[in-house]
Design a protein that fits this description.
Blueprint: H1 4-20, H2 59-62, H3 65-77, H4 93-97, H5 103-134, E1 161-166, H6 172-178, E2 190-192, E3 198-200, H7 222-225, E4 226-231, H8 241-258, E5 265-267, H9 268-271, H10 285-290, H11 311-318, H12 325-336, H13 347-357
Parallel strand pairs: 1-4, 1-5, 2-4
Antiparallel strand pairs: 2-3
Helix pairs in contact: 1-5, 3-5, 5-6, 11-13
Bound molecules: zinc ion.
Zinc ion binds next to loops.
């Protein structure tokens, strides 16, 4: 017979295997069980947990020490900042001929890093995290002065916010590269390309590093309660139509899967006033709100705020950190006014604020 501790560990391992069963080949749309381009179906639903042979935990073991050394060498050699070392690997003529920092250049080095180090690192980290979670309560903890009784009713914590970003980079491939190397220290769960291709880089139950120092309401650790979606856009251009459509499809999937409230689809600038300004003024917040992601206001029927309307308090109720009032106003205007982001509220801006605020009452 198995001990209860062993059973507990087995159950956790099953959760790990299930979670990591979503590992997908590059460019596969996460929303589709089949190939979205060809319509070809995959061998059953890999989220069902019915196909244990799809687990990927054996892969890191296939990476030998020699391979790991090689990956380290390649990581150094493919550092993009080293302009004196463009992709000149003669094993791949196309990559060798691709322009420095072009999408094909980034794709080549990213594919290489993914093969040699990123995936192994991912498995190692998830394994380590689940080991930490499987640790039973410490009997020496002076704050808990009774023996350990275990509950049998629990599951994993779920994301409750979606934070939207623009990448500020020139291609989705560049962003995939940025998130594949350790020295950048940043990541997101999803990257949405201009062509509508949605890449998933991290299981939704894991914590990505996309929000940084941030605050919304009283929450100061947004990374722990949110999913990060990076949208390929340089910050000074409209968002491509296939990209917006793919984003809406992705948001719909996530909203349904995790029961995320409409109010909790917000931007990086919203949670980090004065520090971040993404997504940029071209972001289609109104269209997203009409689809049920975030709030907007009826511009044709704006209600007049009462005489004693307190704009600062309204910003705070919505969720903005108002410790820097000008920064909070700029963030609010980047999201809800867009045409003007000066740090002052005109009468019209106050009307907008009041009407947005009514959604939060
Ligand atoms: Zn951002």
């Amino acid at each position: 017979m198995f001990s209860s501790k062993a059973l507990f560990r087995m159950a956790l391992l099953m959760v790990v295997l299930y979670s990591c069963g979503t590992s997908q080949p590059a460019r596969r749309n996460v929303l589709s069980p089949g190939n979205p381009a060809t319509g070809a179906t995959q061998p059953a639903d890999n989220r069902s947990g019915k196909h244990p042979n799809q687990t990927v935990f054996k892969k890191p073991e296939q990476v030998t020490r020699r391979q790991q050394k090689e990956e380290e060498r390649q990581k150094i050699n493919t550092t993009v900042e080293r302009r004196d070392e463009p992709a000149t690997d003669t094993r791949d003529t196309a990559a060798a001929n691709s322009a420095y920092k072009s999408p094909s250049y980034y794709k080549y080095i990213t594919d290489s890093i993914q093969r040699t180090s990123a995936k192994a690192s991912y498995y190692k980290s998830t394994e380590s995290l689940f080991k930490q979670m499987a640790v039973v309560p410490n009997p020496q903890n002076p704050a808990v002065n009774s023996q350990w009784y275990t509950t049998v009713n629990f599951d994993a914590r779920k994301p409750n916010f979606i934070i939207l970003h623009h990448t500020g980079q020139t291609s989705a491939e560049q962003t995939l590269f940025t998130f594949s190397i350790t020295r950048t220290g940043v990541s997101s769960h999803f990257v949405v390309g201009r062509d509508g291709v949605v890449y998933q880089m991290l299981n939704e139950y894991m914590r990505a590093w996309h929000a940084g120092k941030s605050r919304w309401g009283a929450i100061t650790d947004m990374n722990s309660c949110s999913l990060g979606i990076e949208i390929d856009n340089d910050g000074d251009e409209p968002f491509a139509e296939p990209q917006v459509q793919a984003l809406i499809k992705l948001l719909s999937y996530l909203k349904n899967k995790f029961g995320i409230p409409q109010a909790n689809f917000i931007g990086h600038a919203d949670i980090a006033p004065g520090r971040k300004d993404d997504p940029c003024k071209y972001f289609p917040w109104k269209r997203l709100a009409e689809a049920g992601f975030g709030y907007w206001y009826d511009s044709t029927n704006l209600q007049q705020p009462p005489a004693d309307f307190n704009a600062l308090l309204a910003l705070r109720v919505i969720g903005y950190d108002v410790s820097n009032q000008a920064a909070a106003i700029k963030s609010f205007k980047l999201h809800f006014v867009q045409t003007d982001t000066t740090p002052v509220l005109s009468d019209y801006d106050k009307k907008i604020l009041y009407n947005v605020y009514l959604n939060y009452m």
